[in-house]
Amino acid sequence: MEKILTAKELSQYLKLSESTIYKLAATGEIPAFKVGDSWRFELEEIQKMIRDSKKRGMQKDSGKKDSNV
Asked: How far is CA 65 from the centre of its chain?
């Protein structure tokens, strides 16, 4: 069974404010769904988002050229 987090729980997990979590959810920047008026977040999807973000960051870094050459 997948772990479902509230905005408060996710804010603690990501070390962001609750208001930032709500903004990211509303703009679609983080995977989320609503149950009634409340946002919910699947931990597995959040972790996947973080892994994907790290991979993109590493790819960008490996594509940089040394400007001191």
From this structure: 28
Q: Where are the domains of the chain?
A: 4-62
Residue 14 gets which letter from DSSP?
Answer: H
The pLDDT score that the predictor gives to residue 18 is 98
Task: Give the span between the Cα atoms of 26 and 63, in whole angstroms.
Answer: 32
Global pTM reads 0.79
In 3-state terms, what secondary structure has residue 9?
Answer: helix
Gap between the Cα atoms of 50 and 55, Å rounded: 9
Q: Do 11 and 17 form a contact (C-beta atoms < 8 A)?
A: yes
β-strand partners of 41 = 5
